[in-house]
Design a protein that fits this description.
heterodimer; A: mainly alpha; B: 13 strands; globular
Chain lengths: 265, 279
């Protein structure tokens, strides 16, 4: 099977870069000039497929950079972080990390964090459907039992902490369906922001969170019990309002089945 | 379940709403399996609704069965989960490679048709059919280059594959035509070499004409020559359902339905001849 592997290695190299063509052309039958042109069509198709997938996952980044710049970024990303999966919906998971280290986007310092947020949105779009828990989750719980309670979030729930106003940036960019996600916001680029992503039915929502509220949910996501998460939130802001945080979570459908000590997960 | 009624369409996102609301008379709908490799969300819900209205065909583009590398197991498992959930009438993949050294090119790539490659692909197809507990259809590819090391034609490769694995064929007549035009071959001769009894589905699509030859874009109407090939295949007694495949520059649904009607007219040809013979 090594002959087939060698053919595919060389063919693959020619899809990555025109430099690889010289090693493939001797393997091909027919006119060399024509084959060279056809290899470039294969290369363009592979690039176009990867670019289209990245556009789908990062519509806000694309609006920020403009189409041409985004497509150029997509090519550089493909070269640095090639697809590893036959399902292109999974392509793009390393885009934010790629942007972190990509010098030419320094003029848009918030872009990597916007990309991180968009990937969470992308993942939430296809996350498992779940029926959120309601207020009965907490009904009749003694304070000690509440403090010991561990909470599970509905699939797609994600938290972000950024030194940029990522939630506001995402919310003010039009969604695919047209029209902005929310009302027009005045964005203060000096405003660090915590953000939350969640699924409401089939719709993915994004919102800003107070730092203490973020600390609370972050602790719970990391499997701390409510008491510990409350302490973490209160350390961030002594005025943290536990009841308001829980009410927001119930209204948004963030909470899933409870995982209590001793109960099977 | 077998598909008994005539032509289907590739169901694409811009047509979801109209197809589900109006439910035009279609033999079946086909989707790309990978677009539904999800845990949940709106797309799966759409597929669920479509499945309630029509027989379903799951058409894969990412298994890369001829890749010298293994590593497609997770992909197979995701497909198996989808097949379990939606119980499609048809499951198909392409005779191509796409993955090497851990990298996926996400395209349908050609390879030399050798006995070694045949052994590899046959093993993969058999394992896939065992895992899915059902027959899989393999589609002939549109290719733009040919390899010096090929020991047989694609048609002969597919015929052997059918013998070795019991797989079926997804006969893409546009691909057959594109290759014949690009390489100076004869589509009818390719049809002669393919086992017609194994054909489980037929694909019809449009292509682009470029200075470097025909490119399989799925972005235009089916050309007259490909309709003629469909007539020929029907006269050979192939009753498998046909599909109008349109992926780029997607037109209004009405145009797709007009193409469906044309395929149905040609599909009825054999029946008409039977009536004539009987009279």
């Amino acid at each position: 099977m090594s002959a087939l592997r060698e053919v595919q290695r060389r063919f693959g190299a020619a899809l990555s870069s025109a430099d690889g063509e010289d090693d493939v052309l001797p393997l091909l039958a027919g006119d060399e000039g024509r084959n060279q042109a056809l290899l470039s069509i294969y290369r363009a198709t592979s690039i176009a497929n990867a670019t289209a997938a990245l556009r789908l996952a990062y519509p806000v980044c694309r609006q920020i950079t403009g189409d041409d710049y985004f497509d150029a970024l997509a090519r550089r990303y493909r070269a640095a972080c090639p697809s590893r999966d036959g399902d292109l919906n999974r392509y793009g998971d390393r885009f934010a990390a790629f942007l972190d280290g990509f010098e030419p986007v320094r003029a848009l310092p918030y872009l990597p964090d916007v990309a991180r947020l968009e990937w969470s949105v992308h993942v939430a779009t296809t996350a498992a459907d779940a029926r959120p828990a309601g207020g009965e989750l907490f009904a009749g719980l003694a304070p000690e039992a509440l403090a010991e309670l561990r909470l599970q979030m509905t699939p797609g729930f994600a938290l972000h902490a950024s030194r940029w106003p990522v939630a506001d940036i995402w919310l003010q960019h039009p969604s695919e369906a047209g029209g902005p996600h929310a009302r027009e916001l005045t964005i203060d680029l000096d405003l660090p922001q915590h953000a939350v992503v969640w699924r409401e039915g089939y719709r993915v929502r994004v919102g800003a969170l107070q730092p203490a509220t973020h600390a609370f949910w972050q602790a719970l996501v990391e499997d701390a019990p409510v008491g510990e998460a409350w302490a973490a939130a209160s350390a961030t802001d002594p005025h943290f309002d536990l009841a308001a945080a829980i009410a927001q979570a119930l209204a948004g459908g963030w909470l899933h089945l409870p995982v209590t000590p001793g109960a099977p997960a | 379940m077998k598909i008994a009624s005539p032509t289907g369409i590739g169901l694409r996102q811009p047509h979801y709403a109209r197809v589900l609301d109006e439910r035009p008379p279609l033999g079946f709908v086909e989707v790309h399996s990978e677009n539904f490799f999800h845990d949940g969300g709106a797309a799966l819900q759409v597929l669920q609704r479509a499945r309630e209205c029509y027989p379903l065909s799951l058409h894969g583009v990412g298994l890369a069965l001829a890749s010298a590398d293994g590593g497609g197991d997770a992909h197979v498992e995701r497909l198996a989960a989808l097949v379990d959930r939606f119980e499609p009438a048809l499951v198909s993949e392409h005779l191509c490679w796409g993955r090497i050294d851990g990298r996926h090119y996400n395209d349908l790539l050609p390879f030399p048709y050798t006995s070694d490659a045949l052994a590899l692909v046959a093993g993969r197809v058999s394992a896939l059919q065992d895992r899915l507990k059902r027959q899989v259809l393999l589609e002939n590819l549109s290719t733009y280059v040919q390899f010096r090391d090929s020991e047989m034609s694609e048609a002969d490769f597919l015929a052997e594959l059918v013998c070795l694995t019991g797989c079926g064929l997804l006969l893409d007549l546009n691909n057959l035509y594109v290759n014949a035009r690009n390489f100076g071959g004869d589509a009818l001769e390719a049809l002669d070499r393919l086992p017609m009894r194994a054909v489980g589905e037929i694909h019809l699509a449009g292509h682009a004409v470029t200075e470097h030859g025909l490119i399989d874009t799925h972005g235009s109407r089916v050309c007259d020559d490909v309709w003629a090939l469909l007539r020929d295949v029907r006269l050979r007694g192939v009753g498998a359902p046909a599909l109008i495949e349109w992926d780029t520059d997607l037109p209004d649904l009405d145009l797709l339905l007009a193409e469906v009607a044309q395929a149905d007219r040609i599909g009825g040809l054999e029946q008409e001849l039977d009536h004539v013979r009987a009279a």
